[in-house]
Design a protein that fits this description.
Length: 238
């Protein structure tokens, strides 16, 4: 049976960790000869490059959302080509796209265990990315909230918050669960709605109805607050 792959495009900085971090039975990234490919059991029943591209874009959107949430300096990946691998190993490629470049740094860590005899034992366990991906794949509302969060704008942060708030049936429940405190949420809401606080980025411009808080929140503070609430919400679904 022919096999479908999606060759991924992005910075090597972003791509090189995926073979270690995303290796679920149904979705994984593999490296072959310096290129990175998305594999999925969901591609097995598909018959055309267009179908694979459509489903692949949904998976890549999900991967981008959870990875950006997991690592702030992640820039994102996209599909470079759809690859059909025939039974005899021959490959046919379809649909090419684009990417961009920046320079960043990161740190790595490796988890090991020590056996009774003092030898090291490698530990295989789900990565943080895999765990987050599985929750987002299982709960569409999580995938939506993380996709909104990755844009990092006032508007997208508020929409991510609204998505979460709707899922738990209100702000009261967020506070009751201990995911944040009322004063921080109020400060965020007041800031994001006030033109006097953040100018044209506000949800309500040309309106004097929404007064700024005494100390408007910065965008960095808002990102940190919403990420904290989202993290605790996602953890509640595992």
């Amino acid at each position: 049976m022919p096999k479908w792959l999606i060759r991924l495009k992005g910075e090597r900085f972003d791509l090189e960790d995926f073979p270690k971090l995303l290796r679920l039975p149904e979705v994984k990234v593999v490296e072959e000869d310096g290129s990175f490919y998305l594999e999925s059991s969901e591609f097995n029943s598909l018959t055309s490059a267009e179908e694979v591209r459509e489903r692949g874009r949904e998976l890549i959107k999900l991967i981008n959302g959870v990875t950006k949430f997991n690592r702030n300096n992640f820039l994102g990946i996209s599909e470079d080509a759809i690859i059909r691998v025939e039974d005899d190993g021959k490959r046919h490629g379809y649909l090419f796209l684009e990417s961009s470049v920046k320079i960043r740094t990161k740190t790595k860590c490796q988890l090991t265990a020590i056996a009774a005899d003092g030898s090291e034992i490698g530990i295989t366990q789900p990565s943080a990315l895999e765990s987050l991906f599985e929750v987002a794949q299982k709960h569409n509302v999580v995938a939506k909230a993380l996709s909104l969060y990755q844009h990092g704008t006032w508007n997208s942060l508020y929409k991510a918050y609204e998505t979460l708030r709707g899922d738990v049936c209100g702000e009261y429940q967020i506070i009751k669960n201990g995911w944040s405190v009322k004063s921080d949420i109020s400060r965020f809401r007041q800031t994001v709605q006030s033109e006097a606080a953040i100018g044209d980025s506000a949800r309500h411009v040309a309106s004097n109805k929404f007064k700024p808080p005494a100390q408007p929140m910065t965008l960095l503070e808002a990102r940190a607050l919403i990420k904290t609430i989202l993290s605790r919400w996602v953890s509640s679904k595992t």
